[in-house]
Amino acid sequence: MSLILTYLLEEKYELDNVRVFKGSKACGYEHHFWVMVGDWIYDLTAHQFAGHDPKIGVLADPLFFSYPDWSVEQSRDFVDRACVIAAYRRGVIPF
Predict the structure, then answer these.
(1) Is-contact 73 33, C-beta < 8 A?
(2) Residue 77 backbone dihedrals phi, psi, to 5 degrees
(3) Burial zone of 41 (CB within 10 Å; 0-12 exposed, 13-18 middle, 19+ buried)
(4) β-bridge mates for residue 42, sequence order
(5) Is residue 18 part of a domain?
(6) What predicted TM-score, i.e. pTM, was given to this entire model?
(7) Which of 6, 72, 87, 90 holds its CA 20 to 30 A away from the CA of 78?
(8) Which residues contact 75 (CB under 8 A, 6 or more apart)?
(9) pLDDT (tens digit, 0 to 9) for every residue of the chain, 95 residues total?
(10) Across-strand partners of 69?
(11) Is position 95 within any domain?
């Protein structure tokens, strides 16, 4: 979901500062992903955690600090950008 949102933000608003962050816990096998545009955080899947709603343009949230090891996710090959953009342009993905 984070990569799809990234592609849509880049396409619709012509942004070049959209990044997918991967947060990890110390155990090494619990991860969560969210999107940052500049300093603003977007996490459309935060509701999967008890007591959290999706995050739309927030500066910080305790959820992100529960995943203290952050890194920018460089790999984008697991979601085909061309397919996402084509679906958006055809109206299949309303955004």
Answers:
(1) yes
(2) -85, 0
(3) buried
(4) 35, 56
(5) yes
(6) 0.91
(7) 90
(8) none
(9) 999 999 999 999 999 999 999 999 998 889 999 999 999 999 999 999 999 999 999 999 999 999 999 999 999 999 999 999 999 999 999 99
(10) 24
(11) no
- In which region does residue 93 sit, left (phi positive, over 0), alpha (psi from -120 to 50) or beta (all else)? beta
Domain-located, residue 81: yes
Count of domains observed in the chain? 1
Query: In terms of residue numbers, what domain contains 10?
Result: 2-89
On whether residue 70 sits in a domain, the answer given is yes
Residue 50's Cβ-side half-sphere holds a number of Cα atoms within 13 Å equal to 0
Q: Specify whether the CB–CB gap between 49 and 67 falls below 8 A.
A: no
Q: In the numeric block, which tokens belong to residue 78?
A: 């697991």
The tokens describing 33, both together, are 């992903």
What type of residue sits at position 9?
L
H or E segment to which residue 71 belongs: strand 69-72
